[in-house]
Amino acid sequence: LIYQNFHHETFNPAGSWRLNGTSPLSSANGALPWIVFFRDRRKFVEMFPNLTVNLFKAHTPLTYLLSGGVSYRQLLPSFTYSAVKGVEWLLSPLNPLIGMHYTIELRKQLRHKCF
């Protein structure tokens, strides 16, 4: 919701795993973590059977936008950071819908070799 409406970088949830551009930054798709680890979870499991997704958590719906991100000026003074984090905490049940970033934790299952 947020990326599609309030962010200047490409966010295409219908996209594929492949990025078709001249450079990583110009062909980026902000939806890629969601595509690989949520929408196409079955495909990920089939392609990488030794990897388990331990955590897939959306977060920081406000701090990134209000900080100006990478390309814009900060929208609020720094002393408001604690208040913004408090509001984010209150909004945390909505993070799957409004989160701007993901924390993804993978665990590799090791195959044991017998000697």
Q: Secondary structure elements and their pairing?
A:
Blueprint (H helix, E strand, L loop, with lengths): L1 H5 L25 H8 L1 H7 L3 E9 L3 H5 L13 H11 L3 H4 L2 E8 L7
Describe the strand arrangement of the main beta sheet, using strand numbers.
1-2
Q: Roughly how much helix do the residues carry, as a percent range? A: 25-40%
Quaternary organization:
single chain
Briefly note the structural class of the backbone.
alpha+beta
N- and C-termini, Cα separation: 53 Å
Q: What's the mean pLDDT score? A: 84
Give Rg in angstroms: 17 Å
The strand count comes to 2
Order of helices and strands: HHHEHHHE
What ranges have pLDDT less than 50 throughout 5 or more consecutive residues?
Answer: none
Largest sheet: 2 strands, antiparallel
Helix run count: 6
Global shape: globular
Question: Per DSSP, what share of the residues sits in E-state strands of 2 or more residues?
Answer: 5-15%
